[in-house]
Amino acid sequence: MAFIWGSASSLNGIPIPGPIGPVGPVGPVGPTGPAGTFNFADAEIPSGAVDGVNKVFTLAHTPNPPASLMLFDGIAQRAMGGDYTLEEKTITFLNAPVEGNMIQAWYRY
Predict the structure, then answer these.
(1) Peptide bond just before 65 cis, omega within 30 deg
(2) Would the pTM count as exceeding 0.70?
(3) 29 in a domain, yes or no?
(4) Distance in angstroms (rounded) separating the CA atoms of residues 55 and 38
């Protein structure tokens, strides 16, 4: 398309955009997401004695999904099987946390 100086399709040699075309068809509907909503536990202190001997602690709720659990015992603990195991809402550390440490948990449920 050639532009003519000062024509209806250009102004001083600068092209004037034409009208916007029609909107295309709507795409397919995506899959339905999971039912319900998640709750979050932030900086929860699991129940259990931090006495240098006890390895078993209990959360207030069962993490869902289980992999959402993040544990800290002064430092981040490696995921399930590394530094601890999780069965429902029971945490079992491979090594007892040091006496006086603060255990904190973050998770969805």
Answers:
(1) yes
(2) no
(3) no
(4) 28
The structural domain count of the chain equals 1
- pLDDT per residue over 33-65, tens digit each? 777 778 999 999 999 999 999 999 999 999 999
Residue 10 falls within a domain, yes or no? no
Q: How many residues does the chain have?
A: 109
Instruction: Write the pLDDT tens digit of every residue in 11-24.
Output: 667 777 778 888 88
Number of other residues whose CB lies within 10 A of the CB of residue 59: 22
- 28 domain-assigned: no
Range of the domain at 59: 40-108
| Residue 85 CA: distances (Å) to CA of 29, 38, 69, 94, 104 | 40, 22, 11, 8, 15
